[in-house]
Amino acid sequence: MSQKTQNQPKGNLAWWQLSLIGIGCTIGTGFFLGSSIAITKSGVSVLLSFLIAGLGTFFVFEQLAKLSAKHPEKGSFCAYARNAFGKWAGFSNGWLYWSSEMLITGSQLTAISLFTKHWFPNVPLWVFASIYAVLGLLVIFTGLSTFEKTENILAIVKTAAIFMFIVIAILALCGVLSGGRPDVQIPNETKEFFPFGAMGLWTGLIYAFYAFGGIEVMGLMAVHLKKPEEASKSGKLMLASLAIIYVISIGLALLLVPLQHFSEQDSPFITSLKGYNLDVILDIFNGIFIIAGFSTLVASLFAVTTLLCTMADDGDAPKCFTLKENKKICWPALGLTFAGLILSIVLSLVLPKNIYEHMTTAAGLMLLYTWMFILFSSKKLTKPSGMGKMQIFCAMFLIAAAVSGTLFEKSSRPGFFVSLGFLAIIAIVTWIVQKKAGGTKQPC
């Protein structure tokens, strides 16, 4: 590892730029649409869910940042898993993450297509999914610098949209808007804060965690930092900013309308402003939601194509996925990603009903399994003590709570079993590869 680390070229990314990229990769349909699922499961206690998920995400990123500071390597968490536990861990972790990101692209495609159907209700979902898939691949094709600039710009747009909602919601609460002063929905007792009890909080936790998904892309990008030791600083800024604006914006939405008005099919921000004759504003929000979803879709595509190339360098993927010298993109890697996107579009055509929730659950779970790998790798490689150990064990507990909560919700259970199916396939393939190990290189 040390030789590889020493040979790693110095990056040119400032820590605050990585924070912007992180925000751009994170704020997406997992928040703008997935939060509505969390609200229907948890009620007002969804605010607590987001705080818990933000804390758990912070603990995971702290460990990833420590690994990045000590050993800034391409492949990030996959390389750390390999160095900590051997080749099988790097191989399985890489394909686990690839699978999770492909599920995420499916959920992102479905979500932004649902948003687009708001304007074109008669157009089939798969048509929009196909268009966005092609556009996403075109952005990746242009290279790393375009990806960085795109995510930086979209991070500002998405954050501005949330602040715009906060301002409009405050005006609504003050009675300034044409709809008049709303009947503010303030919970006065514990039962109102936990309308579905502790079980509601538990089953909705997975969707809160999903809204923070994106720290893995920051891990992959940390190798490009001027000072890898500043990865922790960028993560703290990003996660603190997200936690604050997430809780404030969702809290305001919950104040504006009764809980039963929220639906899994609509963004809570659209739902909460429907009664104020703000058609143009709502259309602007809808457009921003599409931009946000497209941004996280591009981040997922960038992550899987980049990781495939790194895995090929390490012998964990076929050599045809190796990025050739002086080339911006690896065509076979892009081709495999495209095949995954086609599968996602087919699923959106075959299973239109509730597909977003099922795919979101599976994607969120697969992502959390990857986070578990990060925690185990950090425990082995950084030898934490005191606060570091506490962070690792707290993060493991919170992740386990989010995963287990899906078992107790009928609509979440299919996603859980989909994620188990992926785990089983990856475990079998890893076992076969290990059994055949002996220096033979994988053909393409």
Automatic annotation (TrEMBL):
Subcellular location: Cell membrane
Membrane association type: Multi-pass membrane protein
First-listed, main subcellular location of the protein, grouped into a coarse class: membrane
Name by which UniProt lists this protein: Amino acid transporter
Domain Amino acid permease/ SLC12A: 18-383
Protein's organism: Bacillus atrophaeus (strain 1942)
Annotated keywords: Amino-acid transport, Membrane, Transmembrane, Transmembrane helix, Transport
Annotated transmembrane regions: 14-34, 46-65, 123-144, 156-179, 199-225, 237-260, 280-308, 329-352, 358-378, 390-408, 414-433
Keyword field contains Transport: yes
Pfam families: AA_permease
InterPro entries the UniProt entry points to: AA-permease/SLC12A_dom (IPR004841)
